[in-house]
Amino acid sequence: MNSCGFSWCEDPLKPNLKDISLVVKAGEKVAICGEVGSGKSTLLAAMLGEVPRTQGTIQVCGKIAYVSQNAWIQTGTVQENILFGSRMDSQRYQETLARCSLVKDLEMLPYGDDTEIGERGVNLSGGQKQRLQLARALYQDADIYLLDDPFSAVDAHTATSLFNW
Ligand SMILES: Nc1ncnc2c1ncn2[C@@H]1O[C@H](COP(=O)(O)OP(=O)(O)O)[C@@H](O)[C@H]1O
Ligand SMILES: [Mg+2]
């Protein structure tokens, strides 16, 4: 991003973000900190091209996987929610479950990862939904992973484990 401004209401006089210059190179991990309402989610949405740009230039190279702040799941099985249309690769799948600390949770579900969730199935906890979202993103072979507040619904211990993996 080169001197970028973004405004949800497309009004250059009412920017939600202004004068943002940001370069993130391949292989870098960047954490954005700021108080509630400071525009962290807006910054990620801007990278996705969801927020009207009112100044500057932006260039994003590569396939993006995105975990939104509000966890969402589709009606279907746990496995369907993670694969999300991608081909099953057992090793990658198991690794993803481990990395997202989901193994124990799945053992407790009546049919494991074949359990129906969402409207017509079991209700997952907020933390479980969040880790499922993370697994869905991680399973994708993306170049850029945008994670919006991915630890907000999990406890400190789980957050540490997720971070380290
Ligand atoms: N989808 C949206 N549509 C319109 N305005 C939004 C949307 N998301 C965030 N905003 C506005 O952008 C500003 C920054 O919010 P946000 O990016 O959600 O902050 P943070 O993620 O740091 O808490 C707020 O004024 C908020 O009302
Ligand atoms: Mg936010």
From TrEMBL:
Any one GO MF annotation of this record:
ATP binding
Q: What is this protein called?
A: ABC transporter domain-containing protein
Question: Looking at the record's lineage, which domain of life comes first?
Answer: Eukaryota
Subcellular localization is given as: Membrane
User: What is its membrane topology?
Assistant: Multi-pass membrane protein
* Cellular component terms (Gene Ontology): membrane
Q: What is its main location?
A: membrane
The UniProt keywords, alphabetically, are:
ATP-binding, Membrane, Nucleotide-binding, Transmembrane, Transmembrane helix, Transport
Ranges of residues in domain ABC transporter:
1-164
Q: Name one Pfam family in it.
A: ABC_tran
Ribonucleoprotein is among the record's keywords = no
Q: What family does this belong to?
A: Belongs to the ABC transporter superfamily. ABCC family. Conjugate transporter (TC 3.A.1.208) subfamily.
